[in-house]
Amino acid sequence: MTIYLYISNTPIVEHIPIYVDAEKISLTAANFNLQILEAMNSRKCKTISIFNSNLDLNKRNESEIITVNQYQSFIYFYNANFMFKLLTLIKFIRKNRKEKFNIICDSLSLENSLLGLILSKIFRIKIVSITTDLPRFFYNPINHKLKDLLFARIGEFSLHFYNGYVLLSEYMSYEKFANTKPKLVIEGVCNVDFSETQINDVKDQSNKIFIYSGTLNNDSGVLTFMRAFEKANLQNIVFEIYSGDKTYKEFTDLLAENIKFMGYLPIKDLRMKLKVAHLLINPRPVELDFNRFSFPSKLIEYMASGTPVITTNLPNIPKLLLDTLYFFEKDDMEGIQKGLYQFLNSDQLQSKIKGENAKRIIEENYSHLIVGEKIFKLFQEINDEN
What's the CA gap between 59 and 367, in Å, rounded? Predict the structure, then answer.
């Protein structure tokens, strides 16, 4: 059986919450990593996820292997430096040298990227980059930090050494590092089976709930949405924010009786909330430089719930999804208010049909079963080339 080493900075909180400080992780990143693993496990591929935990300060340069089932295990490092991780993984691969390995790497982390690429070269293992964003967009020229610039440059350069790519935007496929190599463009992935969440399907029409889940920062557009929501003075509607970010404190002044910060929820519990909500919100500003290259994968999870979704009109939303979404005309307060009024005045039956159509499209194109098959075929293509 082929073993897939999945190198990531984000823990899979669904399975091992004891090792996770939920307030320090990106809810969106954790969810995306879980979906990729579920995609691989759906193909009965054995995955071993690698993550560094900083919670137990009494442990340093230690590791342990945790087995979830016959297909899924984790190698947890505790406050480990780069060399300890590298040597541990070299020993692990040598110990299992009779097995065939492939590597999947969350390449946005330079340390992850270097770990994966070095292992790939030492053992001649094929390696695929999960490229969710481009490193250059994480350098802020205003701060002028030489370290950040250096990391961004090295990160971009390292992308050229992968054998293939899983990209979250079609625009990425035209970048020099990817244009001549095998690649797969998937805007997201979702386990669309909500059968495990046995809940009351009837939405309370007297008290509507709008939900945003994901990162809280200036690039998320949530602050603008909160101001627009407050100014719109909508009756019997509550806006709930689900995020593991501690940065929510910057938003505290706008929290009110009808605007609530709900904190982190495990993915299964979050799915329950998405399913019974009335509207799911993605207010990301349109004019951000990285928008063409970074798809908000939360949209896929939103749409899989069957609940209507409203979003800014981002340039990388696939045509396939356009007819199943509601849109803010603009990403400013006026445009957001207008979008909310239009949704609230829309026909409820049409809104329900739109949500159901969105769920069907996700099931047919972005389910973990379909994406798992596509990633499996990508590795087949890469290995067949040699």
Answer: 38
DSSP, collapsed to helix, strand or coil, labels residue 380 as helix
Q: Return d(Cα 183, Cα 374) in angstroms, integer.
A: 10
Q: What angle do CA 109, 112, 114 make, to 5 degrees?
A: 110
Q: Judge whether 279 and 229 are in contact, CB under 8 Å.
A: no
SS3 31: helix
Q: Counting runs of H as helices and runs of E as strands, what totals does the chain give? A: 11, 14
Sheet architecture: strand order including 3-7: 62-69, 72-78, 46-53, 3-7, 101-106, 126-131, 164-167, 183-185
DSSP state letters, 255-278: -BTTEEEEE---HHHHHHHHHH-S
Q: Which DSSP string corresponds to 138-156?
A: G--TTT--HHHHHHHHHHH
- Under a CB-based contact definition with an 8 Å cutoff, are residues 184 and 167 in contact? yes
Structure-token pair, residue 207: 């008290």
Tell me which DSSP letter residue 216 carries.
-
Q: What is the pLDDT along the chain (386 residues), one digit of tens a residue?
A: 788 998 886 655 454 444 444 444 455 566 677 777 777 777 777 888 887 766 556 778 888 887 877 888 888 888 888 999 999 999 999 999 899 999 999 888 888 899 999 999 999 999 999 888 888 776 666 666 777 788 888 888 999 999 999 998 888 888 889 989 999 998 888 876 654 444 444 565 568 999 999 888 878 899 999 999 999 988 899 999 998 766 666 677 777 889 998 887 877 888 899 999 999 999 999 887 777 887 888 899 899 999 999 999 998 899 999 999 999 989 999 999 999 999 999 998 999 999 999 999 999 999 888 888 899 999 999 988 76
All domains of the chain, ordered by start, with CATH? 3-189+367-384 (3.40.50.2000), 208-365 (3.40.50.2000)
Per-residue buried b or exposed e for 77-104, using 16+ beta carbons within 10 Å of the residue's own CB: bbbbeeebbbebbeebbeeeeeeebbbb
Q: Is 323 exposed, middle or buried (0-12, 13-18, 19+ CB in 10 A)?
A: exposed
Pick the closest to residue 165 from 90, 215, 93, 113 (CA basis).
113
- Nearest of 211, 219, 203 to residue 265 by alpha carbon: 211
